[in-house]
Amino acid sequence: MKHKLQDLIDIKQFQSLQDMMNEVYSFTTAILDLEGNILTASGWQDICTKFHRVNPESCKKCAISDSYILSHIHEANPGVRYKCMNGMYDYAFPIIIDGTHYGNFFTGQFFFEKPDVKFFIDQAKKYGFDEVEYLQALENVPVITEERLNSLTLFLKELIQIISSVGLRNIKQTEANSALIESQELYHDLVETAQDLIWQADADGRYTYLNPAWEDVFGYKIEEMIGKRFVDFQTKEWADRDLKEFERLLDGNTVKGLETVHLGKNGKEIRLIFNAKQVRDINGKISGTRGTAFDITERKQAEEALAQEKLFIEALLESLPGYLYVYDDQGNLIRWNKKHETMTGYSAEELSHMNISKWFEGDDAIRVAASIEEVMTTGYGEVEANLLIKGGGKLLVHSNGVRLNLNGKTYFTGVGLDITERKQAEKALIESEVFLKQTQEISKVGGWSYNVVSGESKFTDEIYKIYGLPIGSHFETEEGMKFYHPDEREIITDAFSKIITDGKAYDLEMRFVNASGENLWVRTIGEPVFEGGKVVKINGILMDITDRKQAEDKLIESESKYTSLFASMNEGVVLHEVIYDNKNKAVDYRIIDLNPAFEMQTGIQAEKARKQLASEFYAITPAPYLDIYSKVANTREPTEFETYFPPLNKHFSISVFSPKKGMFATVFTDITENKLNQERLAKSEVLFRTAFENSAVGMCLTATDGKFLKVNSKLCEMLGYSSKELLNTTFQEITHPDDIDKSNTSVAKAVDKQSDVFRFDKRYICKNGAVIWTEVSASLLRDHDGRSLYFITHIVDITERHRAVVALKNREDRLSAIIRVAPTGIGLVINRVLIEVNDVLCNMLGYSAEELIGNNSLLLYPDKAEYEYVGVHKYEQIKERGTGTLETRFKKKNGEIIDILMSSTPLDICDLKLGVAFTALDITERRKAQLEIQELNKDLEHRVTIRTQELADSNKELESFVYSVSHDLRAPLRSIMGFSEIISRRHFSSLNEEGKEYFGYVLAASKNMANLIEDLLRFSRLSKKSVDKETIEMNGIVEQVLQSLNEDILQSNAKIVVPADLPTVYADRSLLGQILSNLISNAIKYHRKGVDPEIIIDVDKNEETSIIKIIDNGQGIPNEHHEKIFNIFQRLHSSEEYPGTGIGLCIVKKAVTSLGGKIAVESELNKGSTFSVELPNSLL
In the β-sheet with 197-202, what is the strand arrangement from edge to edge? Predict the structure, then answer.
């Protein structure tokens, strides 16, 4: 508190002293405070008061003197002197007490020598003074020496300082006494109103003091507990353990954060955290203990409930019939179930590094990306795609997804089902029943069919349920449009009209009002069926998606309700490694790693400390606290202590534990400010000071306007602010904006005497920006007249508890999302009694949840034998593998028997009594499809056998015919060519021009006929030739083929590129030579005009096959001819353009087929072609 000069001295007494000095010394004096107020004044000269300060002009000179002195008073040594322009001297010195400037002492209106009378006569004339009276006043002005001035002012300065110092000390002593009384009253009020348990015990552990909070927690009256030992309220097990802690405390150690269990008056367990310190008498002897305790019963119960909930969720996830996944917004897989590992073949370690982009490729990847975008945009999506599994295989899966927003981060989760068998069944039945196929694709929804020609409609039972109509009642499709919401009726009518006229399918989500007046959301899908290019039928489904829409609304509400929570650790944390000598004695330790709070707690940059030896870094040998730390590192028993650390001039609270042998970690907090506070309050009541400063919760004293008046160290630690920073602010300034109104309302109600005590949860914003959840309880103290004084407030950091609650809620949300999207029935049984069931299971069986829950699961089975069979085999599988999966049958409420695939997983494999979660998938239609497929396969195999034999017989006849025709044509052709040769030699010159032209046609036709017959014979021989595979060096056989084509290569100026290190292949040498010769010959022949042919021969070899590639830069082949060119007699050019028979590629294909291989072509017009021959790497 800042004081004024008049608070330090007696003004009247000092005025009398100055008056006496003036009578003795004729000395003008005055004392002024810093605001310019004259506190005392004596001996002022008439020449100033009656002349100089009266005349406006001369008064200006006085003001200049005053201004100069005040502006230079800080330079006083010991005072400031100034000769006034009116001819006299002024002098002043500052009054400074304990370094604080309180006021100024003034003297003046004197001369150091006799004055110049003429100067003053001229001045009297100048300003119009009465000369006689003015000169008379001049004679009264004293003339003093400098020695006299110095002695007088020094005396007065010392006198003023002594008197003022005494006054200041008296004021401070009075304030200290008041503060002491106020502090004692404050701490007494704090302890009596605290919700923490505050206690004191004697050396035998018997309670000597307990605050009222003990009655609320234990149920006993205080007087029932005083005089008893703490072990009187414990079981023997806990009492034996805590007695050891009490003995350790009496041996000189403190107890902090000790978790223990007591019993209340009602016999229920009370879980507490104890903090305790020794109490010593004036001789330093231990006289007892005192401390605080904090009730954590509710928190422990919440943690145990959360653990049980986690067991249930884990068991449920493992029971899903498909694989579960949770991805973050970057597509990284962060959660999965065991089925995910078994279906994909990847281990848990491999899955932890998996991104969604690695699961799909090609069009599947595009569809999946679009579905993810839909999930992130709308909150829900589903897709079918081929999932890549370990080893290169694929699974066709149906996946759905739901968007989740948790802790400010976005995820998507869902379930994927292997639908390979279902898809195979759908493909097999698609030609026989289109309607069955489409309804199989969409299970558990209403299906309908509309015949466009007859106008007849068909509906499944589910349609009637959605419409709210009796099953089997008649209504036309057009009448069904009236159930859609009026705002959307035109849309569905238009979509239905367009599907008939344009064949345009539709998929819409719309509002719907059924016959019972229920407001629903439905998804309606219509697919056209064509015959002869016209729509003849429409098949569709109607899906009730009300639950999903409500879930999406709840998800949106949840996102707006729950914001992200952030927390950071304010304590410094450092990891160390102990250094041992060759005798295994600890000699030092090294700083391995540290957290950001290290800098905040120590003021040392983290990078300077990391990897340093402690003895070198702190310049202390041996390293600080080496004996304590090495003991923890060796025994791995944690400890904690408080210490003063000279190198940093700080006090620290240090907790030490060992993560592994030879290493230790310290968690420390700078408690220097707490120590200083303890020293300042040393004279206060020790018990109450301990309760306040060592409380396990934050405590503060706040004014009714919200200003902090006093705070404890726990609150500073909790919020990250220093005590000084908090005392200069209000609780509103650090309260989360959404909680300010709630806080102010509670304060206002208390001030208005509606309630002096209030409690609620709120958020504070820490200095580092983190948000913490707290439980605030406050009591308003009033004076004797009922006026509000201040609030005593207790603030408990419940961030972890709130996180647990939020985590539990998030887990419930995730569980609800999983149960909602899972296309299976889900339930929980304990001792085979149904405890929980989902809507899908109820709808599957036709029961309500109320009809199932509480009944034995025997209700689900068609007979007791099936019930007992499942019980035996399911639990055998659970004992062997931890989960059980088998096929069984369920009996619906209407008596219908359905086939079920059931998977079961216990909540705790070690204790089946806790319950078993199960999933049930209706596979009735799949079983029917499998039976139909089996029948179709038998019929198909029979037909294929017959047709194969017919083709084989036909091929033999064709090959024999071709061979016979080719062979029989060779003899007459040789005669034609022989006689033509004779005519050419002997009679060609005798032919006219027309005859020569016609004769040329005969020769060309004969040669072409010879080539054709030769190719036909080669083609027919291929089927008769035996295949003798061997290992063939590709470079060698390619060289032989190129030698045979050397003349064609030279004539066309072709460039042939052959790598020097082609691998070996397995083939028949003759057939492979024919393949290469035909393909290379074609590449040379069909080159682009004006472009020299360039041909590349290459081989790609893997474990199973070798792929021979012939790549050219020729004319290319149109896409529509890629398959035709391998047929016999297929040509793309005339004989005039390119000679040939049209059999070459047919021979190549037959030779490749004989080798057990495949041939394919990739080509682009005017750019070239690539022929790929794929041969197996096997001699068989």
Answer: 207-210, 197-202, 286-295, 269-280, 255-263
Rounded Cα–Cα distance for residues 279 and 306 (Å) = 40
Which candidate, 441, 398, 450, places its Cα nearest to that of 419?
Answer: 398
Which has the closest alpha carbon to 761: 748, 743, 749, 745?
743
pTM for the full model? 0.34
Rg (the chain; Cα; Å): 52
Q: What's at 966, amino acid-wise?
A: S
Token pair of 416, please?
A: 């994927």
Count of H-run helices and E-run strands, the chain: 39, 42
**Helical segments of 36-93, H only:** 46, 56-71
User: pLDDT (tens digit, 9 = 90+) per residue, 793-844?
Assistant: 999 888 888 887 787 777 766 766 666 666 788 888 999 999 888 888 899 9
Q: Which residues of 1077-1108 are buried (b: 16+ CB within 10 A; e: fewer)?
A: bbbbbbbbbbbeeeeebbbbbbbebeeebbbb
Distance in angstroms (rounded) separating the CA atoms of residues 658 and 631: 10
Give CA–CA dist 867/830, Å, rounded: 15
Neighbours of 615 (CB within 10 A): 18
Residues 116-126: b if buried by 16+ CB within 10 A, e if exposed: eeeebeebbee
Could you please report the per-residue DSSP string of 441-494?
Answer: HS-SSEEEEEETTT--EEE-HHHHHHHT--TT----HHHHGGGB-HHHHHHHHH
Name, of 98-107, 149-158, 168-177, the range with top average pLDDT: 98-107
**For residue 673, what are the contacts with CB-CB under 8 A and spacing of at least 6?**
713, 716, 722, 723
DSSP 1102-1132: -SSEEEEEEEE-SS---GGGTTGGGSTT--S
Distance of CA 507 to the CA centre of its chain: 34
Distance (Å, whole) CA 237 – CA 18: 82
What's the rounded Cα separation, in Å, for the pair 1108 and 1116?
Answer: 19
User: Among 71, 67, 76, 3, which residue's Cα sits nearest to residue 33?
Assistant: 3
Please state the rounded mean pLDDT for residues 582-609: 88
Contact between residue 715 and residue 694 where contact means Cβ atoms under 8 Å apart: no
Residues sharing a CB contact under 8 Å with residue 563, sequence separation 6 or more, in sequence order: 408
| pLDDT for residue 320 | 78
Please name the residue that has the structure tokens 């054709």.
1012
Weakest-pLDDT range from 1-10, 917-926, 1122-1131: 1122-1131
- How far apart are alpha carbons 367 and 401 in whole angstroms? 13
Alpha-carbon distance of 124 to 133, in angstroms, equals 10
User: What pairing do the DSSP bridges indicate for beta strands 757-765 and 1158-1164?
Assistant: unpaired
What pLDDT digit, counting tens, does each position of 228-264 carry?
998 899 999 998 888 887 777 667 667 888 889 999 9
Confidence of residue 1093 (pLDDT cuts 50, 70, 90): very high
Q: Which tokens sit at 887?
A: 């096929």
- What one-letter code names the amino acid at 946? I
Residues 121, 124, 129, 132, Cα dihedral to 10°: 0
Q: What pLDDT score does 235 carry? A: 92
Q: How far is CA 56 from CA 127, 859, 899, 1014, 1076, in A?
A: 9, 116, 118, 143, 128
pLDDT of residue 1123: 76
DSSP character at residue 1001: H
Report CA 1076 to chain centroid distance, whole Å.
60
How would residue 283 be classed by pLDDT, with cut points 50, 70 and 90? Answer: confident
* DSSP string across 888-908: EEEE-TTS-EEEEEEEEEES-
State residue 1148 phi and psi, 5-degree precision: -60, -50
Closest to 1042 (Cα-Cα) out of 1060, 1025, 1055, 1061: 1055
441 CB burial (10 A radius; 0-12, 13-18, 19+): middle
Distance from C-alpha of 463 to C-alpha of 439, rounded to nearest angstrom: 13
